[in-house]
Design a protein that fits this description.
This protein is of the alpha+beta class. It is 52% helix and 17% strand.
């Protein structure tokens, strides 16, 4: 069985785009390239909130 997901908050692509101040298309590109982990539910994706924070932190450290 998979790990315990009770404490994980999942975000929609639109919510991730708003948090990262990018377009939804950019979020889809990050998901499809593997840079941003996501789970597919039917036709939509959900991204763990912690993965968004990690991605933002990694990109910030790449820049500065």
């Amino acid at each position: 069985m998979a790990g315990d997901l009770s404490g994980v908050r999942f975000l929609t692509v639109a919510e991730v785009a708003e948090m990262m101040r990018v377009s939804k298309m950019t979020v889809y590109r990050l998901v499809h390239s593997g840079e941003l982990p996501a789970i597919r539910f039917g036709r939509s994706f959900r991204v763990p909130e912690s993965a968004v924070q990690t991605a933002v932190d990694n990109h910030i450290s790449d820049v500065g």
